[in-house]
Target: Cytochrome c oxidase subunit 2
Amino acid sequence: MINLFRNLFPFIVFLPTFSFADTTENWQLGFQDPATPIMEGIINLHHDLMFFICVISIFVTWMLFRTLWHFSYLNNPNPSSLTHGTLIEMVWTITPAFILLIIAVPSFSLLYAMDEVISPAITIKTLGHQWYWTYEYSDYINEDNEFIEFDSYMLPEEDLELGQLRLLEVDNRMVIPVNTHIRVIVSAADVLHSWAVPSLGVKCDAIPGRLNQTSLFIKREGVYYGQCSEICGINHGFMPIVVEAVPLKNYVNWISTKLTE
Ligand code: CUA
Model:
């Protein structure tokens, strides 16, 4: 009972300011909750493919055990002399090809949907460094003709406040509005990194001297956690990504405070 109260306490007291953090949970097996149409598409494709995988594995396992059974002298003393047949070979060639064709249709449509950048309202450049991320909002310029640019470092364990996630929280989050087409330009300053946020369905390599591009359209407010996903050196595991999706009004406020800083 005391434990129940302890667990519910933050929910009761801080309910008005409570928001779900999109991150991993203990013993998680499936995906994190999607926040973009792309991630919804990825999860749906995964579920579609699971159907084919289940049918194929059950069928192949059944055939394997049936073969083993009939290979036994006790069960089948007079083996068949059949070595090959045109019909069976056509069936086991055409059927898998046909399955692959069926799978290819939703797979390709998702692939091209992920590649599409629909006339973005905001462009954000993210640069991977050893071992932190830099975010540049070059759409906005302040009085000194400087655009918004800031570093995003992981919070060390001793600086964490109650409720903040170890190895995932950063000092400066990337803030973006919901329901807006956003272009993210990804690059790196030193070595290969990868900008990845599972809930948003984004994993984009950050390559020095090269600009990669992805798009985001976040459907709900929230805090989305991700990590660098390309081995980039000793602190590879300590350069997390935090994306905070807020209503457009709050985003405009955030931009104006950043510009006056
Ligand atoms: Cu940066 Cu791994």
User: Anything to note?
Assistant: The chain has two domains: 37-74+86-115, 122-259. Residues 128, 131, 193, 228, 230-232, 236, 239 surround dinuclear copper ion (CB under 6 Å).
